[in-house]
Amino acid sequence: MQKITKYNSSGTEVWQTKAFPGLVAALISNDKIIAGANDLYEISLSDGAISKSLYASKPENGDARYMALVKGDNLVYAASFSKLENIKPNQIKYDNVYVIEKGKAAKGFSTVTNNKTVGVGSTSLIVNPERKELYTANFNDNTISVINIKNKADLSIY
C-alpha cells in the first residue's frame, strides 16, 4: 500500500501517493475534488458521484498524475508522466500538460513540437502566482519548462 502525502500548493491542499505517484487529488471547492489515476475526474464529496470525466486516457498518454493549483484561480494544471518510447519522430503534438477550468473539460498543451515548448515526461508542476508562470520538471528529457500563464487566452495556443 502506498503512503498518501498531503501537500499545500499556494493555499490549496493536494494529495499524492508516494513513492511513485499513482493517484492525485485536489480540493477544488467545499464539495468537489479532482482526482487522477491515469484519467482526471471531478468527484462529489457529498455522495461520491463521479460527475464529470475531465480527460479521457489516450493510449499514448495515459498517466495523469501531477497537479498544481493557484489560490483564487479557477484553473488546475495537470501533467502526465508520458513515456518517451511513445513519441514518434517528427510528431507535431504530444499532450502531457493539461489546463482544467474548474467544472469544464480539460484542454491539452502541445508539449513536443518543433520548438520544444514543453519538455517530455512532466513529473512535477508548480505555479509561481506572482510571476504568473507554470514550471514543469520533465523527467524524460532532463529539462525544466517555463510557461507564461499571465493571459489565460494565451494558453489556448499550446
Architecture overview:
By secondary structure, the chain is mostly beta strands. It has one domain: YVTN repeat-like/Quinoprotein amine dehydrogenase (Methylamine Dehydrogenase, Chain H, 7 Propeller), CATH 2.130.10.10. It contains no helices and 13 strands. The chain has strands spanning 3-9, 12-18, 24-27, 32-37, 39-44, 50-55, 64-69, 75-80, 97-101, 106-108, 122-128, 133-138, 143-148. Strands 1-2-3-4-5-6 form a six-stranded antiparallel beta sheet, with no helix packed on it. A hairpin with a 1-residue loop joins β4 and β5 (39-44).
Unreliable residue runs: 1-7, 14-22, 56-61, 83-94, 106-116
Radius of gyration: 15 Å
Distance between the termini: 37 Å
Assigned CATH class: Mainly Beta
Number of domains: 1
| CATH T-level topology | Methylamine Dehydrogenase, Chain H
CATH 2nd-level architecture: 7 Propeller
pLDDT averaged residue by residue = 60
Strand content: over 45%
Compute the number of helices: 0
The helix/strand class is mainly beta
> Care to count the β-strands?
13
* Order of strands in the sheet with most strands: 1-2-3-4-5-6
String of helices and strands? EEEEEEEEEEEEE
Assembly context of the chains: single chain
Per CATH, the superfamily is: YVTN repeat-like/Quinoprotein amine dehydrogenase
**Main sheet attributes: strand count, strand direction, barrel closure:** 6 strands, antiparallel
What is the helical fraction, as a range of percent? Answer: under 10%
Gross morphology is flat
